[in-house]
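Structure ticket #2291
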Amino acid sequence: MLKLRADEGQKQALLRTMEAYSVAFNMAADWGLLKRLCNHFDHHYGHYREMRSKNPELNAGHVQSASYWACQALRIAKMKFAPRKKLHSCIRLYKPCIRIILNQGFCSLSTVEGRQKFNFYYPEYFHKYDGWKIKSTMLLFRKNEKEFYLGVVVQKENEVNVPFTQVLGIDRGLRNLAVTSDNRFFNSKKINGVRGRFAYNRTQLQAKGTRSAKRKLKKMAGRERRFVANINHCI
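Resolution: structure written out below.
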């Protein structure tokens, strides 16, 4: 979470942007429920122009975002009702709507009053994320503080180091416990035979139903489980 440094004029612009975004979201939800559609492409081709005309001050990216997340909300609601978004709820920021440079503590946002530039506090321990790819961003307003925050999700690709070139493929099954790519077969005859013996003994003990039989059943269950685990481990 990154706290934005915004003056009073910028805060008002952000609040108005949130309000317009909420209106667009609710419009998309109402239209989707009326048409019984929650597919983003259907919304885009069927309702996008109307949303743009009724929210001319809103950036195209904000309109697309509102439409997409309204579709997601309709799916969660199982098309039973139209989800509602409050005026100052958080908004998802698509890439065209925001430019953010983490290590410099700087970003620019699209608002209903045009592009606005902001600085934010970037703690020293956040520098470990320098160079990571920004996956998604959302704008939040905390009413008790009357401050705006950016929620930023970053991702780093894992480096895969393979120190060897030989790879062994293993296929697991029931008839053969394992078959390897170098043509080795590990059949299940032994393990199935032991399981059959345990199953027979279990049936005999269950038929008796005495206390000692129940104690024996408990011990047998542990023995069978350990035997199977050992065979699998050895293979």
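Closing remark: Residues 7-89 form one domain.
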